[in-house]
Amino acid sequence: MLVLRIRRLLAAVVALATSSLLLVAAPAAAGPVTRGWPVLFPPVFNLPNGFQPEGIAIAGTTAYFGSRLDGDIYAASLITGKGRVISQGPGTSSVGLKVDRHRRLFVSGGAAGNARVVDARSGDVLASYQFADGVSPSTPSFVNDVVLTGRTAWFTDSQRPVLYGLPLGRHGRLPRAEGFITLQLTGDYVHGEGFNLNGITETPDGKALLVVQSSTGFLFRVEPRTGATTRVDVGGARLVNGDGLLLLGRTLYVVQNRLNVVAVVKLNRRGTEGTVQRALTSPKFDVPTTVAAFGPWLYLPNARFTTPATPDTTYTVTRIRR
Questions:
Q1: Confidence (pTM)
Q2: Could you report the average pLDDT of every consecutive run of 10 residues in the chain (322 residues)?
Q3: What are the angstrom distances between the C-alpha of 231 and each of 76, 190, 209, 213, 269?
Q4: Domain boundaries, the chain
Q5: For a surface tag, which of 171, 219, 227, 272 has the fewest beta carbons within 10 Å of its beta carbon?
């Protein structure tokens, strides 16, 4: 297994070198330097000051991040830690995001109640979807996270008991602006005060969805055809402050943001039961929110919710072993 991981890392470096050093047009300055050599795959790297990161998605050796401040999308090389803004935001948040095989970023719009699809190569907005009137105080919305299944991009709303779906056509064709699904949730899920639905992913068998409710710490299995929910039995554990979810095989990684830990949950194939096996943490964590994987590592942006946000506030990405 170790040899395979090393081969994958070497292959990534070779691929980078043969594709014009896929550093997303980063500045010429090198990454961190030790004894005259740049540090490859730095365990911590910087995002722009004042960026206020939330979501992360990884394609190849490039990581993409969304800004809660103005919706900018930043791309960074995992090899050097260097990068740049590739897409200017709309002035509202970009929170959860995922990237597909066409290098399109599906971006959750937070309190604006919307989502958009961005070309990760050009930064162009390919489509926009207004799911809800996010600015209405009587019916607030917060489109939070997204998962890409075989035929649909599903988004959570932390202020409403619904999921939004973008049905994808042949070759990933995007629906029209009004062609989205609003899936009402029923069953075990109870919408409450505070922040509700947050992270989302698929079940290991790919037949249903998993969502975490931040306020209660409950994990739910959602039937995507009906919206029926069933609480996942995780042995009585509560995944409080649950944020981003990442499923690798039958292992579910749950970021518990303000607790500065990542819970590791082993699930059955249907995603109806699981066991919390351990918790991952790092002294470099500062309220991590979402998570993506590359090789044997997990990468998490530090949102620093407990730190006053100013134009000079520093933000980092932390790498840990999974």
A1: 0.89
A2: 48 43 37 60 98 98 98 98 98 98 98 98 98 75 97 97 97 97 98 95 98 98 98 97 98 98 98 98 98 98 98 98 96
A3: 37, 10, 12, 10, 15
A4: 2-321
A5: 171
